[in-house]
Design brief:
The complex is a heterodimer of chains A (155) and B (88). With 155 residues, chain A is an alpha+beta fold. Chain A is built from six helices and four strands, in the order βαββαβαααα. Helix content of chain A is 41%, strand content 31%. The longest helix of chain A is centred in the N-terminal third of the chain and has 17 residues. Classes of the chains: A alpha+beta (155), B mainly alpha (88). Chains A and B meet through strand 2, strand 3, strand 4, helix 3 and helix 4 of A and helix 4 of B.
């Protein structure tokens, strides 16, 4: 069994049901090819770093699945490429560390610990000379989470 | 006699001793770099969105390659920009 992960961006202009239907279509396509769906991660509405097809934002989906071999992936990618509702897609095969990382993240093991260790690091560097207190540390993860969570109800 | 506290330096003397760089992936045992984690990848690119060299980040070659693949995947999915001005 090999693990794969397909991430795609759905056009944000579609209605909520349409978006869900589009994502479900590709999940069904994978199950029809006898791939076992491990997890469907709805990342939600996100600002794009650069415009794609004159869209400034997109709805991100990430589907993790496992299959005996990846022969059918070309077929699914072709369907994604032909679909005008999909702005971008990326299929990646996960090594054992990637599969473990995703499992741990779902279990909440990684998301919490790594963010704490990761997030403050870029902030620390510029303000290193004068940094007597560590008060801003607990606030940081909250702020980024709120930013990601906010746009979801807009969809 | 002048005590140690009385001596004034023009610049902070501790600034000169740069501490040893290390590969954070080897040190903290991070085996997989998630291309969807924007905030993590931001540590490895500069203001223009270019990858920082190993000489600055201290990554080992093995993990620098993985970082570069992850950043390129993130760029394809519009999680990170290809080119930017003052992105930090």
């Amino acid at each position: 069994m090999r693990n794969y992960e397909v991430t795609f961006i759905v056009d944000p202009i579609l209605s909520g049901d349409d978006v869900k239907g589009t994502a479900q279509k590709y999940v069904d396509m994978l199950t029809a090819e006898k791939a076992g769906i491990v997890h469907i991660n709805e990342i939600g509405l996100r600002q794009l770093a650069y415009p794609i097809n004159k869209r400034q934002s997109g709805i991100y989906y990430c589907v993790e699945f496992e299959a005996v071999d990846g022969a059918f992936i070309g077929k699914v990618e072709l369907a994604l490429r032909r679909d005008e509702k999909i702005l971008r897609y990326l299929t990646v095969s996960l090594d054992k560390f990637g599969a473990k990382y995703n499992a741990d993240k779902r279990a909440g093991k990684i998301g919490v610990t790594k963010k704490k260790e990761r997030k403050p690091e870029p902030e620390q560097r510029p303000e290193r000379p004068a940094r007597p207190e560590r008060a801003p540390r607990p606030e940081r993860p909250e702020r980024t989470e709120a930013k990601v969570a906010e746009p979801v109800p807009v969809v | 006699m002048a005590s140690k506290d009385d001596i004034k330096f023009l610049s902070n003397p501790s600034l000169g001793q740069n501490r040893k760089k290390y590969c954070r992936f080897q040190k903290f045992g991070i085996k997989y770099i998630d291309y969807k984690d924007e905030n993590f990848l931001l540590q490895f690119i500069n203001e223009q969105g270019k990858l920082l060299p190993r000489r600055i980040t201290g990554n080992s070659l093995k993990y620098q390659r993985k970082v570069s693949v992850a950043v390129k995947r993130a760029r394809h999915l519009a999680i990170l920009p290809f080119v930017a001005d003052l992105m930090k």
